[in-house]
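User: Can you fold this complex?
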Amino acid sequence: MRIDGRKNEQIRNVKVTRGYTKYAEGSVYIEVGDTKVLCNVSIEDKVPPFLKGKGEGWITAEYNMLPRSTGVRKVRDIARLKVDGRTMEIQRLIGRALRSVVDLKALGEKTLWVDCDVIQADGGTRTTSISGAFIALVDAVNKIHKEKPFKVYPIRNFVAATSVGIVNGEKVIDLCYEEDSTAKVDMNIIGTEDGEFVEVQGTGEESPMTRQELNELLNLGEKGLKQMITIQKNALKMDALWIGTGE
Amino acid sequence: MRIDGRKNEQIRNVKVTRGYTKYAEGSVYIEVGDTKVLCNVSIEDKVPPFLKGKGEGWITAEYNMLPRSTGVRKVRDIARLKVDGRTMEIQRLIGRALRSVVDLKALGEKTLWVDCDVIQADGGTRTTSISGAFIALVDAVNKIHKEKPFKVYPIRNFVAATSVGIVNGEKVIDLCYEEDSTAKVDMNIIGTEDGEFVEVQGTGEESPMTRQELNELLNLGEKGLKQMITIQKNALKMDALWIGTGE
Amino acid sequence: MRIDGRKNEQIRNVKVTRGYTKYAEGSVYIEVGDTKVLCNVSIEDKVPPFLKGKGEGWITAEYNMLPRSTGVRKVRDIARLKVDGRTMEIQRLIGRALRSVVDLKALGEKTLWVDCDVIQADGGTRTTSISGAFIALVDAVNKIHKEKPFKVYPIRNFVAATSVGIVNGEKVIDLCYEEDSTAKVDMNIIGTEDGEFVEVQGTGEESPMTRQELNELLNLGEKGLKQMITIQKNALKMDALWIGTGE
Amino acid sequence: MRIDGRKNEQIRNVKVTRGYTKYAEGSVYIEVGDTKVLCNVSIEDKVPPFLKGKGEGWITAEYNMLPRSTGVRKVRDIARLKVDGRTMEIQRLIGRALRSVVDLKALGEKTLWVDCDVIQADGGTRTTSISGAFIALVDAVNKIHKEKPFKVYPIRNFVAATSVGIVNGEKVIDLCYEEDSTAKVDMNIIGTEDGEFVEVQGTGEESPMTRQELNELLNLGEKGLKQMITIQKNALKMDALWIGTGE
Amino acid sequence: MRIDGRKNEQIRNVKVTRGYTKYAEGSVYIEVGDTKVLCNVSIEDKVPPFLKGKGEGWITAEYNMLPRSTGVRKVRDIARLKVDGRTMEIQRLIGRALRSVVDLKALGEKTLWVDCDVIQADGGTRTTSISGAFIALVDAVNKIHKEKPFKVYPIRNFVAATSVGIVNGEKVIDLCYEEDSTAKVDMNIIGTEDGEFVEVQGTGEESPMTRQELNELLNLGEKGLKQMITIQKNALKMDALWIGTGE
Amino acid sequence: MRIDGRKNEQIRNVKVTRGYTKYAEGSVYIEVGDTKVLCNVSIEDKVPPFLKGKGEGWITAEYNMLPRSTGVRKVRDIARLKVDGRTMEIQRLIGRALRSVVDLKALGEKTLWVDCDVIQADGGTRTTSISGAFIALVDAVNKIHKEKPFKVYPIRNFVAATSVGIVNGEKVIDLCYEEDSTAKVDMNIIGTEDGEFVEVQGTGEESPMTRQELNELLNLGEKGLKQMITIQKNALKMDALWIGTGE
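Assistant: Here's the predicted assembly.
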């Protein structure tokens, strides 16, 4: 039995609130257990310098924990004049995850700014951010699409994320903070509706993992991704992504 | 008639949610119209260097707007490596307002960290922050007081804030963003339950104001502060602050 | 009797030296008692990005204390890589004060950079900065006006500042540092020759003030502003601002 | 056939120079093909604040590319006042990899500083850094061990890293820059001599990968890690790590 | 004939005002022609970490140009978050110059902070800073010495600085800005009353100088140093430095 | 006898490796005794803002010590968010030295970026950087010249640098670290093949030097520069710089 009574392959309760703030083109408040993240997607009609004139778009993500999203108050980055290394790592991960399912050429010369602000952290903030940000991204893209349809709809696939790990010798899914802090192995898995992997980020810092352990964790991760993508579809009230041309 | 149908001396609807996050000693989500601010108060058992060994406590405030709390996405301070000047001005104001009603000697060698993170901005974020942060501060102080009573209860008075201004020739209270951006005069008023003023910050940048206009605005402000303090009391389910010794 | 022998409604001795440095378009060294501030105004023929193409000008102020302008050496901002919060607050105040009496459309696409560098601080550096910077601003604007007259002369009114406060139960004007550090209430008042208020920034951090106290302090402030504007006129050898068109 | 004539499962030529600089306790210049990294390990007799008094040691890594290690000159971080996000991600990876095979309690209150400075980059700089830094770490630890033996020898296992990817439909190992920039999938694999995985960081940003592709890449990675660990042993002239107590 | 009518070996008019500000232990306003620098020396009863417990003192200098000390307004360092390279070079030079004539052991565990703030720049700001800062340093040291005499008086010698250069083929001393900007060679010479050199910093960036030119410039420099040291003595009303023990 | 057995006028062994890295237009690894510096020169087809449209080029240098190039690990500048003052001073010196022998008009609108990264430091890193960077600069300029000849070959003269000093009463050349740290006087001399001086930077911080000592040190420096320029010629396999037009 897990600390919060869940089964090993059971993810935490998820609650998705779309349209959470009124200005962002896509705004999702996602709660996975006690982890709560506000994911806002903003659209800007220009691209970073390295893409200028290439007819392609870009997706960039920023991740931030509010100071008291954690048990001990976390000093703001600006007070130290440095972005925390972990924050950097996570926001790069979110950006890669979302770009992997978006056709940046179809998007055209736009930048989608994805802001994931953690309101309360209880483990899995990076996977929660990805799963929630994808929903906000769909809302933002659809907002444009309704006003002025894309020739090719730019989102190619659903993408979601979950964590798996080995806790007290058990392979479990979607670790809460208390599990995470005692896990022997901790792995973040990001994948699509088609069962393909976008990124597998497994860390066995405390103790390495065998090939067999890795395989079992991947099996578990696949189950979690399916659950999460179903939740995304329900929240979006969509069975499938918009298909084909904008006409 | 005002843009949102309110009367001149009517503040916007206020909603207060206490205990919004689970870690902070005091955590209040306050909504004043469409302005929404998360106010978290954290307690630290040490004081800044300039107070070490003096037996006094301190209250320090940080204010921050989430990037998409506004109509156009605001670049994070850390991306520019600079705290925005307006942010600095506001967080200093919040700190002064709260310190004015707290007996820092009675508080003892503790620092209260007040984090006001604006989730959605529609005018009056600084006054909303002060009004909400006071409630969170009471919760945080009472949490300590219940565990280990203060000899003298350190909060001396209620404090709240509101804005007043001259919009289209009318003197109005609690300006929303649209009113604020066309106001001839804009003034923030911070005061106590006893009808005393803690800070009066009036700016007539567009056009100066006469002494009579100032007086009428102060009258209006007094009405708004009363309404806001009543709301604070209802939210806290208290008629008065804890009185006397902790015994 | 006040600590330096002044009467309650008497401001300190003021000395104004125009043309203090040879490069700045307007350069004023102002001494109010032992507070000494160098106010330089520079003219730049471009505007900040948010005003580009709007045909309007801008006024921006920077305030800085030299390291040994104070009793204890103050570390330079650059050594900490951060602008001090108080500095930010003050330079924003100076900017708003000056913009309130300038017709930015009449100024056209120019930026006036106002640098207030405190050489020696003995209370009231922000009000001294405003009073001195206004004189330097007039000199800078007139320098342009003589070379190539504005269609509409852009300065609409005199503006000056002074402080008032309650010290040892007495309401006094233009507090020196020693008075300021024991004041129960401290308020900065900025106003025009017409007796209108531009900004009223009253702080009762130590103890709130009643409405009546506020009124009496405003009365006192009005007297101080008149004295200071007379001094400005004498320094500028002008009875009134340039009027009408440049022809 | 690969661009440089290698077979799919063949890593590039590796050259290891120990004792490259004279001051560092461990100093290794490692060349993997045209990728060249200087790995210096320094020992400091204190630990970061979060470990003070716990009797444990720490390993921290810094990664940096020299400005002209790349085809286009890269601006130094200090010129932008920001650590590059990719750099952050990599130095955290190096730190985790090395800590996973070191018994930090056995190390005692020491910090090992690992500096990986890329002299020339041609793909795989992060995996090269890990493989080279491990050798330098062994040299540094042995230097202490010879002078004053540890009770328990703190290095528990060899650790090395390599990359695998799918290039032109072929699964290949140890990608050079040109392969890397056209790879459909790119994965960094870090593992021990015992065939266990420390971290698996697979990114399918361009296109996700199926479970079968992932499995085949892991197989390939295992082969590469064996080759690299053999090279590490040859360079160190050791068949196995020092075992048991220091007596 | 030089641009301002001086002879080749003639330095500009020098005016020294001691006790310019009231807080600094030594405060000198020095004017060399139109170059005007405020030199404040502050005493702190502690030393930088690298000297702790060694019983020695330290002298550290900071140099800064006010924004409008120059023809075109100079952006403040803090606005760019970087100390200008030239500023760094100069403040290191000032520090070395002053330390060269002070017995840091005799000074004991104190830091002398030397702040040179350029009010107006017309060439030779670094040499003016050194010559003026020395006078302020003497005042600061004597202030301590009078209160609590040093066992050994810590200032060993007078030190001053001047510049020499080749302008329009003529070797001249103490270049003003206009001369400096057309000089073929420009050299700063720092020396003592005994005719010894502390630093010779000759730059022939535009065109190298021959050994003979160098010799003639050094001859000229020696003359300038003598003039400047006489001025220092007159300003200090001292013929010689305090000698011997404090008893 | 010197600590490493050299004669007073003997420079250390010098080893020059051209083409050290494969990307830089000029890449030289220079070893002077145990001091080892990688000097890379990169060419960029644009100039800094202050030269735009003037038809001239620019040379800018960056100097950096790798963290473990020294006996005690040096914290990276980016970790402190500040460029070290000594670093600033040195990179400005390198830039001036190289610009003094290059005809920037003949170079045309190009920037030469000179990166001197110290791999191992044992005294004289700044002079080693200049001597090595000049060779890399010749290689970079010749690379352009071969592809598209300059009308006027832009390098006018060889430039090299060495240090001289007074150690244990002896005047010696090319000080190693141990000598440098006990030197009474330390001077860096930069000069051309024609025996002209580009910069003479003499510091007698510990104790000033007499005019006669200065003369003898300059004599010694001239000898060292000749030796170093001969080494540069041998490394470049050139007796003289490319002369005349590119046709």
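Helices of chain D lie at 77-80, 85-99, 104-107, 125-147, 177-180, 211-236. The mean pLDDT of chain D is 94.
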